[in-house]
Amino acid sequence: MNPLLAAEALHTRRQFFGRSVLGVGTAALASLLGRDAFAASPPLPVSPSLPLPVRRPVPGLPDLPHFAPKAKRVIYLFQNGAPSHVDLFDYKPKLREWHGKQIPDEVAGGKRFSTMTGNQTARPVLGEISKFSQHGKSGAWVSDFLPQIASISDDLCFVKSLHTEAVNHAPAITYFMTGSEMAGRPSLGAWLSYGLGNETEELPAFVVMTSRDKEASCGQIFYDFYWGSGFLPTKYQGVAFRGAGDPVLYLSNPAGMSRAVRRGLLDDLAQLNEIKRADFGDPEITTRIAQYEMAYKMQASVPELTDFSKESASTLAAYGPEVRRQGSYAYNCLMARRLAERGVRFIQVMHAGWDQHRNLNTQLKIQCEDIDAPSAALIRDLKQRGLLDDTLVIWGGEFGRTPFLQGKIEDTKGWGRDHHPYGFTQFMAGGGVKPGISYGATDEFGFNAVENRVHVHDMQATILHQLGINHEKLTYKFQGRQFRLTDVHGHVVKDILA
Fold first, then answer.
1. Based on the domain organization, do 105 and 193 belong to the same domain?
2. Is 314 part of any domain?
3. Read out DSSP for 22-72?
4. Which of 4, 127, 143, 447 has the fewest CB atoms found within 10 Å of its own CB?
5. Structural domain contains residue 47
6. Domain count of the fold of the chain
7. Neighbouring residues of 94: CB distance < 8 A, sequence distance ≥ 6
8. Could you tell me which of 320, 358, 427 has the C-alpha nearest to residue 219?
């Protein structure tokens, strides 16, 4: 889509129909806001025979999907701070054998690291601090710190050869989320909202939830551009649900304002905005109208969404003791399942606390305890409800952790690992991905990805492919060139697809 052509089309309509806000202009607005936009609306209809609200799809681009999709939606469980692949998934006996010895120069020499170890002359190898075991028919190696994830290993596809160029958190996360290390590009969820639309009018196409470790052990910040729309219209940006109070600000009506009064206020405001849109042809005014209408619909849909009272005791127990604490990772994982079954296209769950530079011996296990049961419960829950087949779940961080030690080998309390972009692990489940496999490999030190290497852009191309999108064809013209999520790179990793 070319925004200049879109604005020109609006301008042409303005010339053709004149400046009237009645007649066809009002009819077009009514179509935009939905069938019941100009009447006092009751809460969303819920059929007694159906457990969920009735859906009203919102279309995306007319030529999408490019081909039959395997997945309808994505849940991205992003682990901010970078989990240590060599302590959790990438078992390397060589690390224990070389524990305390200098990592060979031919492995690590000349590589770029963060400033925390960039000038560190001694780089002793650090053996895994957890015990590894093989699990399931696939024989997947998983740390004993993650027993619940290990128990579903036959449902998972481990990608052990990821690599990236970024060595610091914000650029590396931005790279995964937007395809660029620099902020300003549309995020993955925004691209999907723009291209595919939504399965429902009652909730946003793209929802974000954040949480952090209870110990607040690291200072990771959740920047808005991790879920921004970049140069796409702002209606495609992620809607961030808060960790306390109303999930979205101003969701509740002020004291003394009924729902009918709110409806009338929004109708009048929409007509005023339509006058400005007709005068200026600004697509952001259309976005504003749509956002007001979405907020109104969410007043009815969100209370039902966040009501866990009908969840079974066994379901709540599976997600762990933190599931009822709003803003916790467990709460957000259960919310992710509920959002998925209500038609939300892209659900981005971000959990910080993995940046273990000086507290690996203590914090890694605590962090694993926080995320293990909820992550596994989400995948089991989706599978039991028949949702996993068309829901792609991704778990992983922005890079891995160094196989060598940050600090001194004698200081066991201060053991840690630095940022490591050269080879690390993520796992996927559902959405047409092969279950029960490990794809790619790092070298014997877990340092460099050496077999079936997968770049950030390859992962993005593969995600889009599973949703029926050719990553080379989903583009948007901005500042004179066609942009895409994968820039000028990326190949679909077909070997991991069912």
1. yes
2. no
3. STHHHHHHHHHH-TTTTSPPPSPP--TT-SSPPP--B---TT--SS--S-S
4. 4
5. no
6. 2
7. 444, 445
8. 358
- The pLDDT tens digits of the residues spanning 258-286 come to 778 777 777 777 788 788 778 777 777 77
Other beta carbons within 10 Å of 385? 12
* Whether residues 443 and 393 fall in one domain: yes
Residue-wise pLDDT tens digits, 160-186: 999 999 999 999 999 999 999 999 999
Tell me which residue range forms the domain holding 152.
72-247+321-496
Q: Is 417 exposed, middle or buried (0-12, 13-18, 19+ CB in 10 A)?
A: buried
CA distance 495 to 498: 8
Q: What is the DSSP letter of 198?
A: B
349, 379 Cβ separation under 8 angstroms: no
Distance of CA 41 to the CA centre of its chain: 32
Q: What is the DSSP letter of 153?
A: G
pLDDT tens-digit map of 52-78: 666 778 889 999 999 999 999 999 999
For helices 283-305 and 3-17, the axis angle rounded to 10 degrees is 100
- The shares of helix, strand and coil residues in the chain, as percent rounded to the nearest 5, are 35, 15, 45
Query: The pTM is what?
Result: 0.86
**What's the pLDDT tens digit per position in 414-427?**
999 999 999 999 99
Q: Which two tokens stand for residue 371?
A: 């995320």
Q: How far apart are the first and last CA of the chain?
A: 32
Q: Are residues 267 and 135 in the same domain?
A: no
Summarize the confidence of residues 182-210 as an average pLDDT. Answer: 96
Burial of 320 (0-12, 13-18, 19+ CB in 10 A): buried
Tokens of 324: 């009822």
Say whether both 491 and 347 belong to one domain. Answer: yes
C-alpha separations of 2 from 9, 186, 476 in Å: 11, 15, 7
Distance CA 267, CA 198 (A): 23
- CATH number of the domain at 342, please: 3.40.720.10
Rg (CA), the chain: 24
Does residue 257 share a domain with residue 239?
no
Counting Cβ atoms within 10 Å, is residue 4 exposed (0-12), middle (13-18) or buried (19+)?
A: exposed
Q: How would you label 223-253 residue by residue, b for 16+ Cβ within 10 Å and e otherwise?
A: eebbbbbbebbebbbbbbbebeeebbeeeee
242 and 256 in a common domain: no
- Does 243 map to a domain? yes
**Same-domain status, 285 and 381:** no
